[in-house]
Design goal:
Layout (H helix, E strand, L loop, with lengths): L1 H8 L10 H20 L9 E7 L2 H12 L19 H4 L7 H18 L5 H4 L12 H16 L5 H18 L2 H13 L2 H4 E9 L2 E7 L1 H12 L6 H9 L5 H13 L2 H13 L20 H21 L12 E4 L1 H7 L10 E4 L13 H6 L8 H13 L13 H4 L6 H8 L6 H12 L13 E2 L2 E2 L3 E4 L2 E4 H11 L2 H15 L8 H13 L4 H9 L18 H13 L1
Antiparallel strand pairs: 1-2, 2-3, 4-5, 6-7, 8-9
Helix pairs in contact: 1-2, 2-8, 2-9, 2-26, 5-9, 7-8, 7-9, 8-9, 11-12, 11-23, 14-15, 18-21, 20-21, 23-24, 23-25, 24-25
Length: 571
């Protein structure tokens, strides 16, 4: 990272700046600022033990910037790729660092944000104090600004050393540029590229009720709550509860959770969770053969993703309906792009309209949405195997092993001969494949009345498509049969409970969690399968904040180790 900063400071990379020498100063001091902050524990962190670190996601970054600085801030950037573990990006985020190119992207984005926040139009709102002389440094005003926004971005108060290092940077830059706000831009940029912002660093402290054990400190607890419920940084009320320590009291915790679930931001949190669980990151790479599916384009892909979320959030958040209705409901939302693919009229002047398919229609539940069907298919054909695998993985938390390396797929992939069912049944006779295919394919074969784009069909290569399937001792008939099967399958609610918990705590579940997850599943069932009730149950449970100390720990604080890792990557 040192070489990267030297390149930035020397003007070796093309950046539009008001004063090149000011950014040269920033490039020369940034590493020291970050390292000083990483090595200095915050006021609520000592004596503390680092117990977790997760890189924030793109949506968490975007929501945080909008909440802290306002929705008018434009974010035009590519974000570092994320990693999926056991079905969730939230679990993979604990294994991510930053590449040198990724840091450069965050740096450019931080500069853009700082410039927008502190331009002549924005500074009057963003800066609560007035500098004594806008043509030079003002340490008092800079200190107030850094402390205010540092707490919001770092999700905890800054230590004095973290504040003073940035006040010094703002002072040097302000004096050299002859502009107080130019110096303040440097300070804000350093906050936005610090590991304490880009990573969620969780700390634990001795539990006063049981000094032999640890508990999450108040700010880590507030952060875990906020990212689960709102997908963003804690707000002023939640930070106040952390600052006073009141968040550790069960009554205060319950009040905060109730307040947050009642907020419109709860919809953002639910949207982020279901986008992760439904593996919607795949839409970014979705392609279809234009000769086979001429109706497909980028607008259709984006609309299909949005439709799945609109259906889910309307059902589970707005109406607080039974989670199982997600697999059988005929009502959804469509826009003009989707209406063309669904082959239905669009009788509205609005961008989106509610639409209900007839009860006898095969369009029943989220599995018959174009989004699910097209995402889990090939560019030119459908794929019962892919669809079956994803039904098991996403909705029942049942992983499927990778196929053997020596399997011949040529017969299955020849879409010019017969139906997919016939080709797959022949493939299933392969002794090395039958075990998995007999488990995954029936669910996908029952969805075969939908092609690789999700369009309804009944024939393939001149032959009628049979959508009946046998899964162990259960007979499934078509898409509605799959929906009813999932509605009555006990592993489906259990999987949602496990995913919500894992998503919130950022760690995989183990045997020690079995009894807790079983109890939460029973409580979820008793609530009528209501998603807000499930989140409330988990977010107010002691287990959600349980600390399990790692057996072996690095001697370096997590943030400091992150800086070292970044430096090593850049070199």
């Amino acid at each position: 990272m040192q070489r990267l900063l030297v390149g930035i400071a020397s003007g070796g990379r093309t950046f539009m700046t008001k004063t090149i020498s000011v950014w040269a100063l920033f490039g020369a001091t940034l590493l020291g600022v970050i390292a000083a902050g990483a090595a200095t524990p915050g006021p609520a962190q000592s004596p503390a033990m680092k117990v977790g670190v997760r890189r924030i996601t793109e949506t968490q970054y975007r929501h945080t910037i909008a909440d802290v600085f306002g929705p008018a801030i434009r974010l035009e950037a590519r974000f570092e790729p994320e990693r999926r573990e056991e079905g969730l990006l939230a679990l993979g985020s604990a294994m991510l660092s930053l590449t040198s190119s990724g840091f450069e992207q965050y740096f450019a984005l931080a500069r853009s944000i700082s410039a927008q926040v502190l331009n002549e139009k924005g500074r009057g709102i963003a800066v609560a104090c007035e500098p004594a002389d806008a043509s030079k440094a003002d340490d008092t005003c800079a200190r107030q600004f850094v402390a205010q926004y540092g707490e919001l971005l770092f999700r905890r108060p800054l230590a004095s050393a973290e504040i003073e290092s940035r006040v010094k940077t703002a002072g040097l830059g302000g004096n050299q540029a002859g502009d107080f706000y130019a110096g303040l831009e440097l300070a804000l940029t350093s906050l936005l590229v610090a590991p304490d912002f880009l990573f969620r660093i969780e700390s634990a402290e001795p539990d006063p009720a049981d000094p032999q054990n640890f508990r999450l400190d108040a700010y880590s607890k507030a952060t875990r709550l906020s990212f689960l419920l709102w997908d963003t940084t804690p707000d002023a009320d939640l930070l106040a509860a952390a600052r006073s320590g009141a968040i550790h009291a069960p009554d205060e915790l319950e009040q905060q959770v109730e307040r947050m679930i009642a907020s419109p931001k709860f919809r953002d949190g639910a949207s982020a969770f279901f986008a992760d669980m439904f593996q919607m990151d795949g839409f970014g790479n979705l392609v279809k053969d234009p000769a086979i599916y001429p109706k497909f384009n980028q607008s259709v892909a984006e609309s299909a993703r949005e439709q799945m979320l609109l259906r889910t959030l309307d059902l589970l958040v707005t109406r607080q309906s039974d989670y199982r209705d997600l697999f059988t409901a005929h009502d959804t939302f469509i826009n003009r792009s989707l209406a063309s693919v669904y082959a239905v009229p669009y009788a509205s002047k609005q961008p989106w309209m509610r639409y209900e398919f007839p009860q006898e229609s095969e369009r029943s539940g989220i599995l018959t949405d174009i989004g699910f069907l097209s995402l889990h298919a090939h560019p030119g054909t459908s794929s019962p195997t892919r669809r079956g695998i994803k039904v098991l993985e996403i909705f029942m938390c049942q992983a499927t092993p990778q196929p053997p390396a020596n399997v011949d797929f040529s017969a299955v992939q020849d879409s010019t001969k017969g139906t997919v069912r016939g080709r797959l049944l022949d493939h299933m006779e392969n002794e090395g494949c039958s075990g998995c295919h007999r488990r995954t394919d029936p669910l996908g074969l029952a969805l075969e009345h939908f092609d690789g784009l999700g369009q309804l069909r009944t024939m393939e290569n001149g032959a009628p498509i049979d959508v009946s399937a046998e899964l162990k001792d259960v007979t499934i008939e078509g898409a509605r049969g799959v929906g009813e099967y999932l509605r009555n399958e006990p592993r489906v609610p259990a999987c949602l409970v496990r995913n919500v918990y894992s998503y919130g705590v950022g760690v995989k579940t183990y045997g020690r969690d079995k009894a807790y997850l079983a109890a939460q599943t029973q409580a979820f069932i008793a609530s009528g399968y209501r998603y807000p009730a499930l989140v409330r149950l988990i977010a107010t449970s002691p287990e959600f904040f349980r600390v399990i100390a790692p057996k072996a720990r690095s001697s370096k604080p997590v943030a400091e180790a992150t800086v070292t890792q970044l430096q090593s990557t850049a070199e």
